[in-house]
């Protein structure tokens, strides 16, 4: 595992994501090393390969200082704008306990009087450490990614991330602390069409945490992600791999969308962006 401190020139980056104006990524790389991670392409900026994803973290040591400068890009204290922490790394992965870059960036946004929406997206319970700061924002919300209720499945696809049960518990604690939350159900795992009761179990578990909003995302199977899946999951059952391929078909997506919409109604969830997000790539049909 390589951990290296680096200097960055900018940290508040304009985003192309549908629901965020800016993103802050205090780290390059992510120890959680999820097999389906689309951010594994990030290695190209630090001379790493997709296969190295999960085995390096570059610490943007001067991120808080640079954020102070970058905030000048925002007018009216950022009113009406949204910032996401983070889009291509987990802001609360293990190293954050030591380096506290995410916490420091949040402190800077607070001191500066940021009036937009601060969004956090993580798989880690370490976010609970920063509840004291998050409650001080006018608009802050925390999303936990949960793709299954089964800790074995989360360990399989999200090797070093905290187990699914801990993420659900984190949502519960955030809700109890009156912090706005959402669950990010992404990617939708390919077996959910055949075993929709498993998706029902997942929605029920999220509902029981008191969470009201969901983002849903279809799996992104760009070529580099397929190659990574094959490498990372060598014993993967052939039938399961075939389901991954099928999941790129429009009919499959339509079926899955229907299941999602019905379950969202059942548990009275609001689906953000109205529909499940999907990324068009060379393998989509
Ligand atoms: S936690 Fe997020 S950024 Fe980190 S490896 Fe998993 S999907 Fe990628």
TrEMBL record:
State the Pfam families in the record: Radical_SAM
Q: Where is the Elp3/MiaA/NifB-like radical SAM core domain?
A: 20-247
Q: Which Gene3D superfamilies match?
A: 3.80.30.30
**Superkingdom assignment:** Bacteria
Q: Report whether Transcription shows up as a keyword of the record.
A: no
Q: Which InterPro entries is this protein grouped with? A: Elp3/MiaA/NifB-like_rSAM (IPR006638), MJ0683-like (IPR040086), rSAM (IPR007197), rSAM_sf (IPR058240)
Protein keywords:
Iron, Iron-sulfur, Metal-binding
Residues crossing the lipid bilayer are none
Q: Name one GO molecular function term.
A: metal ion binding
Q: What is this protein called?
A: Elp3/MiaA/NifB-like radical SAM core domain-containing protein
